[in-house]
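Continuing the batch. This is chain 6 of the set; chains 1 through 5 are on the previous pages. Same settings as before, nothing changed between runs. Recording input and output for traceability.
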Amino acid sequence: MPIKNEISLLHLIIFFEHQIHLKLSAILSTKKGLFVK
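Output for chain 6:
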């Protein structure tokens, strides 16, 4: 059971990191778009 919990925790961390990365890339792309305009 502890091993499964660790694996699920790792998946959650990876998922949240992916979501944060997507939001950051979206913010950066919008900033670049504003600078281009």
